[in-house]
Amino acid sequence: MAVNTRTPLIAGNWKMNLDHMQAVAFVQKLYWTLKEAGHDPQTVETAIFPPFTDLRTVQTLIDADKIPFALGAQDLSEHDSGAYTGEISGQFLAKLACGYVIIGHSERRQYHNETDEIVAGKVQAALRHGLSPVICVGETSEDLERFGASAVPVGQLEVALENVAADADIVVAYEPVWAIGSGQAATPDQAQEVCAKLREVVAAKLGEDAASRTRVLYGGSVKSSNIASFMREPDVDGALVGGASLLVDEFAAIIRYQKHVGV
Ligand code: PGA
What we know:
By secondary structure, the protein is of the alpha/beta class.
């Protein structure tokens, strides 16, 4: 197995929270909190995923103040342009210096009927425009009971990676649906087991190089008190954080997990 050179990624998915004015205050406060704590941004990559209407404002802020956060969107259209009312093209996101886009979040799959095929189309759209897709996969509690933890996320990822080039820059996020927003996170062992299987899928579809380079995140009720236990696992390269990414001190503590006692 190759040496792990993957930079850990802590990604904050704000979902439908914080307008563009609140976003400015939040990003400035997070930046200063980390700076005052002496955080070295080289050691852990921080990415934030605000609502679409905040993106331009946040991009301008991080650009002007040289704030070392990556920017991402929470979704994109599988199409590039045309008569798709309400949709957002990857082309527009690339122009706003977005580096990432979340695709296939369970809330999109559940409330917007996104199928594995739609997710695969969105992955292609992201890659066409130079955006790294953060491909979310995960099982519901019914799936867990019927098929175990890994069968559904493995199947979802296999479809999402159809026709993806071996050198594509992707991120995978394992998010058990039952753990999202429930306060009941997976155990580090559970996360490790599924993340390792997902890395095997990347190896089978894109090759060993891609598998050793690709970051696999865990998401679902991550907080400052459990992040270090996930990050100790060899196949967990970061976290996709929802609720806790809306609290400056809590999110800063998650980003600074390497400083927690016993890490
Ligand atoms: P949570 O959400 O951290 O609030 O559980 C995670 C997610 O939905 O990405």
